[in-house]
Amino acid sequence: MIPITISEEILNVCPYLHVLAVAARVVNTPSNPELWDEIRAEEEEIRATVALEEINKWQPIAATRVAYRCFGKDPNRYRPSAESLLRRVVKGLSLYRIDTVVDLVNLVSLRSGFSIGGFDAEKIVGALRLGVGRRGEPYCGIGRGELNIEGLPVYRDAVGGVGTPTSDEERTKISGTTRSLLLLINGYSGREGLFDAGDYAVRLLRRYAEAEEVEMSLITSGGQAEMRVLD
Q1: Given strand 212-220, what is the order of strands in its sheet?
Q2: How far is CA 219 from CA 32, 51, 78, in A?
């Protein structure tokens, strides 16, 4: 597992932040029909039960939006990724089809409300540290181009930023050749629901991405601790 820490500038504002890291060896594929059956079923359930105006009140999303405001970022302009996915589905659109691993990560985010960073771990250089984006800091968001991350929580490796709750960075993105996966499930609302999301992600990874060597760790103000993995 890659070492991951949280900076004081984050903890001073978000003392109850819990991050669940899931690492695994995977086999990615362009698409999986059975996974998309699950995705479509989840989309239908959400459209039947969730109103657009309720989305930003979901606890994991609301807490992430509060963190954005505390760092000076407008969460209506730079929405957390889970909120963006839910809004898309409630408006009647389906999730984007990317590849199997990305699609299943989006499904976990859709069901749980947590914004999840997904990375090719082999592209990460050194350890990761969660801090706050600086003015003019270079960052190329996946499918978004240059993204202004000033005031956004951002994971950085030895090279630069790799992930925010709004968008991950092109440099470390998951691709068809990804074999070493790292997921970061960001619990700005605390621990509640975090392990359910992690266990769900592991089940999907084993079912649809042949996941092996699965590891899980919890990162808090107290450091990084290895956790049990769903059998």
Answers
A1: 115-120, 180-187, 18-25, 212-220, 223-226
A2: 31, 32, 24
**Which of 118, 58, 102, 108 shows the shortest CA–CA distance to 83?**
58
pLDDT, one tens digit per residue, over 61-98 is 999 999 999 999 999 999 999 999 999 999 999 999 99
Q: With beta carbons less than 8 A apart as the criterion, state whether 100 and 35 touch.
A: yes
State residue 225's pLDDT score: 96
DSSP code, position 97: -
CB atoms inside a 10 Å sphere around CB 71 = 17
Which token pair is 190?
């605390």
| Nearest residue to 85 via CA among 49, 38, 57, 43 | 43
Q: Are 106 and 95 in contact (CB under 8 A)?
A: yes
Residues 180, 120: contact at Cβ < 8 Å? yes
CA distance 47 to 45: 6
How many whole angstroms separate alpha carbon 142 and alpha carbon 201? Answer: 21
Rounded Cα gap, residues 49 and 52, in angstroms: 10
What the chain holds in terms of domains, given with CATH numbers, is: 4-226 (3.50.40.10)
Give the separation between CA 196 and CA 194, rounded to whole angstroms: 5
